[in-house]
Fold this protein.
Amino acid sequence: MSSTRAPLIGQPVERKEDYRFVTGTGQYTDDIVLPRQTYAAFVRSPHAHAHLRSLDVAAARGAPGVLALYTGKDLTSVGGVPCGWLIHSIDGTPMKEPKHPILAEDKVRHVGDPIALVVAESAREAKAAAALVEVEYDVLPAVVNPATAAASSTSVHDIAPDNICFTWAVGDKAATDTAFARAAHVTRLSLINNRLIPNALEPRAANAHYSPASDSYTLYVTSQNPHVERLLMAAFVLGIPEHKLRVVAPDVGGGFGSKIYLYAEEAALVWASRRVGRPIKWTAERSESFLTDAHGRDHVTTAELALDADGKFLALRVDTIANMGAYLSTFAPCIPTILHATLLAGQYTTPHIHCQVRAVFTNTAPVDAYRGAGRPEATYLLERIVERAARELAIDPPELRRRNFIRKFPYATPVGLTYDTGDYEATLDRVLELADVRGFPARKAESERRGLRRGIGYSCYIEACGIAPSSIAGALGARAGLFEAGEVRVHPTGKVTVFTGSHSHGQGHETTFAQVVADKFGLPLEDVEIEHGDTAKVLFGMGTYGSRSLAVGGSAIVKAADKILAKGCRIAAHLLEASDEDIEFRDGAFRVKGTDRSKSFAEIALAAYVPHHYPIEQLEPGLNENAFYDPPNFTFPAGSYVCEVEVDPDTGAARVDRFTACDDFGNVVNPMIVEGQVHGGLAQGIGQALLEGCRYDEESGQLLTGSLLDYTLPRADDLPNFLVQTVKGTPCKHNPLGVKGCGEAGAIGSPPAVINALLDALAPYGVRDLEMPATPLRIWQAIEAVRGKR
Amino acid sequence: MSLQIRLRVNNNAVTADVSPDTLLVTFLREHQHLTGTHVGCDTASCGACTVLVDGIAVKSCNILLAQVQGCEITTIEGITPADGSLHPMQAAFKACHGLQCGFCTPGMIMSAIDLVTHHEHSSEAEIRAGLQGNLCRCTGYHNIVRAVMQAAPIMGGAKS
């Protein structure tokens, strides 16, 4: 660290990437136009479930501007979209893994399933031609509802006649049942975790190009993890040698999980680009995004919590049905299992937990990770049932939680995780103070004077970030590694370029990672540049998801930077005529311990590239290091949230009036960015609780919420100002930065806080339950239903 | 059939021969290569395409080029000073962390400029209502609202 300046780590440094974004000079995939560009459109199924009887493409082929048209028959030699996670059922059998064709072969399985690809001189001509493709369908009954999918007489896939993909469980069932038998009190809860449509503001897009000169492909794509995309496409779909496919994810306009996956459209474009001989671009219309982006959540759950007479949790029993949609998306089987059931201990010492998960196929878009991915589902059921138990036992909800907090670390849960560190009391104490819970009765009285009902709700969440290590993930079914790669390249002038396998699509890595490296070398921030998102530049990467980038990707960079410093010490020892052990790197310079002799970082960099006086016998020239970092464990951020709502009982209109979040993310590199991540997560969580809900028609399987006019994203006037604070928390013990991850916390912790607050507000009416999204209609109906019974 | 349209884009006179159904956003992105204006939806719901037409914020995906005959169009590129500095609204978005992925940002900034230009002393609630036509999926709007409140007096000061 330089003596001339304070550390950058911990400072709310303005983002390096912002100039290009606020000036409109970012480059997103759709902004890229290649020489001789052509455009694609997809013919999509209007039916949820149908056999393809015939396809007549003659008129479309002959339409103006059309260059090529392909159907499933043209792609039979190509692999399907692969699934990256294998789950085994309780009986030991592997999950049912039906083929997911790039273009439909004999059957379509959800509205929007692609049937044909049209390539034309312009996007308009491609779309016009797509409308000319005549398809005859034998329409089949559709299965939509996960709760009844297994009992349906309709099968989405022949290899899963009962629509069950797998039935999986975790925990000791016998011990859990025994604990229930001796419980003083059992609280029960049935709930639906509502299906969500991610809606990153930039629609998915791809631009694929084949160069005969180099016999290689380039794909520009809206991806959160370009290397994973390349690996899956090369090895499993197209059989292109990996070194002949370059994947570039340029500026990406938000992901939230939905851009992790390999999508059929992207593979189709790469495949077709060689045949057409010109680059092909496709940009989804928002309607296509609604129909074909992987959706999130969609769990149907029953849960039971056993307590003793003092309110100590004895056992938790959970049964969940998880909707996989029509095909298995890249990480779909992992979400309701490894990322959901293993989180069910939450912040509590519950000694026995058993969770069974049945995953089912339906005639809906695939469901996969969406911001939080399994952890919001676990947190929602846990924090709802805990608050219901508190109400049933007339214990103050924070007090009931406190009685059950884990206080000794490391702590091994009964569902497979070991928490390294945490202090749940600290975040709860702080949030109660910040939220001015003591002032709640006065605010409630004031609301009532205006004819409104005010309620307060709590949520104490735990998150598991940076899924790891690879060996354990592999044993649990991962078909990929879960490390991250980084490269630190010091230039002869002492300036630094860092290459990371993480991908930033809003998270601010170009700033945060630069803060870390600048501090490491004692450099000004502007001397460090972060590169990401291009498989031709970055050595390898697993990408950005699961709040892993700083904890895993940042750690890889720190490892590489440490190698730079170690090599720098040896170069300095030679130049300063000292022994290696006598050199230390301190305050931006390599120094002979206990003397005033030193060499600056830039002098050592220059010596490495101009090795006139250099230990050439012992050391290679150059100053460039790679590192791969495979974490020994997840990280475990945690926090406590308090929500206050105001409800108009005459209309059912509800408004979040105050939302207070207190999080422990371990060490924080850039508090401004961290707070921004929490704000965004809260908005999506409050959106889930009050506004957002994906609906398919139960009979026809049509998507009823297929546009931004039908699916309600939170707007500026739907949300309050947030009060967000991080505590000086418990740094992660097993990564070099002591960081935990903050990207998903807000979306995980907030939905139960909102619903608990609504139920508190509506308790005087006898309302005990509300489904998400708690729209004015649902709230009004809940009030009226209880009134009607009286 | 094509139409001849004359208009001004970011202070430059432009003449275009276009098909009559050309949208303003298509013209800006594909003919003028001004890709700072984004398209995020197909129902005029998201506001990522917002530009100023004679100083009024307009969703450029929802208006034909033919409708802006003779108008002055200002895009995000048009408010950016050439010397590498920023318009006060751009600077405030950066200073307040009012953006993350950046996709909604140009449209959000153009809407915010219209809002502040015509309602200089807006309250927080009025700013939230005024930005209702622009979706952001990243920030939860908290820092966008702060940015607009920060930029308003600076823009007002610059005017007077």
